Amino acid sequence: MRNKLLSASIFTLIAFIFVWSCKHEPEEMAGPDPPTPQPCDTLNLTYIADVYPIFDQYCVFCHGGATPEGGIDLTNYEVVALLTQSGQLLGAINHDPGYSPMPKDADKLSFCQIRTIAIWANDTIFPQPGNPCDPDTVYFEKDLLPLLQSSCAQPGCHDAITMQDGVRLTDYNSVIQTADVDPFDPEGSKIYKVVTEDEPQDRMPPPPANPWPQENIDMLYKWISQGAQNLFCDEEECDTSDVSYTLPVSGIIQKHCLGCHNDNSLLGGLSLEGYDKVVTIASDGRLLGTVKHEAGYPAMPKNSSKLSDCKILQLEIWTQNGTPQ
Questions:
Q1: Which structural domain, as residue segments, surrounds residue 99?
Q2: Which of 294, 65, 264, 69 is nearest to 315 (CA)?
């Protein structure tokens, strides 16, 4: 009888030890501690420092460049503002019902990234529509960017791929972040110094390209003096009366085309320097075919946004009327 009780006690002890060991694994058998989540800093958020880098990393590959997907260019602050005000931006990144989830075919943005954009959107006061253009103000997207895209943001130079010397001149945020712009101080801004440089080897655009004309230099100086802001305004009604080469065609060519297509920089073997050369491509259909992005023609301006409907209409009327000088 005593032996039976002893055997039962030993069996009970072994069973207890087995159960206890299953419930309490040794430390060396336990998995690693989960990583400590990084803090999400949402204090003093700004568009350039906090929000745009998210777009640049996850969105601009599709929604940027000359032909942004869906016509949505997230390098354009005005477009971002409209999407934010309408609720489309947060709806897309939150994957809310009724919105196309973004980024497309990729993981959802992190909680911190979405929270950063949401707080910025909630705290930002966006400009109200109905803002007429001030003739004494330089508007970056309307006035200066076309000049930079035409003469600087070209393949092999300061486009999004080459970024020579780390400088990218394709959009406002890139210009501010990479071109050494010192707001209110043109002489202290490298972007201004290089376009006014006397030594050809240091000048931008570099030879054999033409140096910037004084009116372009003056515009850059004025923009920096006014704070190097990304201001927007409502374009005036499209003036299609008395369309001639003198006004407005030569101005369109100067701003959007001449940086690549001049006598010293024959991109594609083509110069648009002067009335006769512009008339040649207008008469054979190349001018309208390229600016309207028609099939069979290279889309122009290259590596930048399509011309506005008004400018295309003015070029079309000028061509139809016999290209008056």
A1: 47-123
A2: 294
Q: pLDDT at residue 116 above 80?
A: yes
Q: Which pLDDT score, from 0 to 100, does residue 129 have?
A: 59
Cis peptide before 205 (omega within 30 of 0): yes
Q: What is the mean pLDDT of residues 84-111?
A: 92
Both 216 and 145 in one domain: the answer is yes
Q: What does the pLDDT read at residue 324? A: 96
Residues 282 and 323 sit within 8 Å (Cβ to Cβ): yes
User: How many whole angstroms separate alpha carbon 131 and alpha carbon 239?
Assistant: 19
Measure the CA–CA gap between 21 and 322, rounded to whole angstroms. Answer: 95
Count of domains for the chain: 3
80 sits in which H/E element:
helix 77-86
pLDDT above 80 (res 156)? yes
* 273: in domain: yes
Pair 287, 281: CB distance under 8 Å? yes
Residue 227 in contact with residue 184, Cβ under 8 Å? yes
Mean of the per-residue pLDDT values of the chain: 86
Nearest to 249 by CA among 235, 260, 239, 259: 239
Of 189, 209, 225, the residue at which a domain comes to its end is 225
Residue 6 is predicted with a pLDDT of 43
Choose among 170, 212, 210, 172: nearest CA to 303.
Answer: 170
pTM of this structure: 0.58
Is residue 26 predicted with pLDDT exceeding 50? no
Give the chain's length: 325
CA–CA gap between residue 106 and residue 8 (Å, rounded): 62
List, in order, residues 6 or more apart from 2 with CB less than 8 Å away.
none
Counts of helices then strands in the chain (DSSP H, E):
13, 2
